Amino acid sequence: MKDPFGRTIDYLRLSVTDRCNLRCFYCMPEEGVLPLSHSDVLRYEEMAIVVEQAVQEGIRNVRLTGGEPLVRKGVPELIQQLLGIDGLQDLSLTTNAVLLPLYAQSLWQAGLRRINIGLPSLDRQVYTRLTRHDALDQALAGLEKAVEVGFSPIKINAVILREWNEDPLPFLELTQRLPVEVRFIEYMPIGPAPSSRYFLPAGEFRRKLEVYGPFQAADRPDGLGPAQLYRRRPGAAGRFAVIAPVSEHFCRDCNRLRLTADGHLRPCLFSDGEFDIKPALRPIPNREAIRALLRQAVAAKPACMPQTARDFSRGMSQIGG
Questions:
Q1: How many Å apart are CA 262 and CA 239, to the nearest integer?
Q2: Considering Cα of 318, then 142, then 123, then 169, what sign does the dihedral take?
Q3: Could you give the CA distance from residue 320 to residue 67 in angstroms, rounded to a whole number?
């Protein structure tokens, strides 16, 4: 699929739930969000039908997101379903790792090999304030379990916020010990009442990184990704990168669509335009209608996201990140 600007769209982010066991303040209000009703959320069978049709239209890579996907029962079974779709080349999952000690082995047995872990801090006090839950020990146990089971690559998404977790040293030290890819990610002010107060531009963060340099450029093993990888020093088990979706946006190379847990296709994270796919799924799936909606969503992709905070009715947890 090609969008109006010639970009090949081959990546789908699929949110399996809007629920989460944490309350990261940059993602979800402390009281949470009004949960979707059971009938509003797509069934796994419906998600598999959409992915099957998306693959026929040219989607090759799918990432399962949330909320927190592991709070929904049956994710390993969904993974098995999706991996059985002919033409799907890559399937991965994003998690906060709190439930990984319980589910890492079953995810691996289902066929999953790639995993992203959202981990905003390695300091227990900061982590607890950011996520509003004292769950760092469980998250780190989940990370260790993912390494033990054999997931690769394991990418750690560390959203950097001014005044909160600006010092990169703890994560740099983690890359010395574990075979992980730490991705320092700019905070994206998005969702209800977004705040730019905590936005730390990547350029400013890189100057903080340089204090601990110089660094060694590292090859990207999968050949994918928007940023250069580095090692802190020769022999380090892991790597790191800086991702700048706001100050150094990579809209020019955007290749993705998003499907929310309640069945809305979103052409762009920073756009509130959506296409409801449920009428094409219920009561009887209309595969041609599904493919037509996928093409419409691709045709609606904007040239680039706006460079300002956006106040949508949906927060990041409801969009799927």
A1: 36
A2: negative
A3: 6
Strands 229-231 and 216-218: antiparallel
Going by DSSP bridges, is the β-strand pair 181-186/239-243 parallel, antiparallel, or unpaired? parallel
Q: Which amino acid is at 133?
A: H
Note down pLDDT in tens along the chain; length 321 residues.
999 999 999 999 999 999 999 988 877 766 666 677 878 999 999 999 999 999 999 999 999 999 999 999 999 999 999 999 999 999 999 999 999 999 999 999 999 999 999 999 999 999 999 999 999 999 999 999 999 999 999 999 999 999 899 999 999 999 999 999 999 999 887 655 456 788 899 999 999 999 998 898 887 655 555 568 999 988 899 999 999 888 877 788 899 999 999 999 999 877 778 999 999 999 999 999 999 999 999 999 998 876 554 545 555 556 665
Specify if 232 maps to a domain: yes
CATH number for the domain spanning 191: value is 3.20.20.70
* 23 within 8 A of 75, measured Cβ to Cβ: no
Q: Which two tokens stand for residue 10?
A: 């081959």
DSSP letters of 105-155? HHHHHHT--EEEEE---SSHHHHHHHHSS--HHHHHHHHHHHHHHT-SSEE
**Domain extent for 284:** 11-315
The answer as to whether 140 is a domain residue is: yes
Beta strands across the sheet bearing 90-95: 216-218, 229-231, 239-243, 181-186, 154-160, 114-118, 90-95, 61-65, 11-15, 256-259, 264-266, 275-276
Whether 81 is covered by a domain: the verdict is yes
Amino acid present at 119: L
User: How far is residue 173 from each of residues 38, 119, 143, 227, 232, measured CA to CA in Å?
Assistant: 43, 15, 15, 20, 8
Whether 110 maps to a domain, the answer reads yes
Count of the separate structural domains present in the chain: 1
- The structure tokens 């959506």 sit at 274
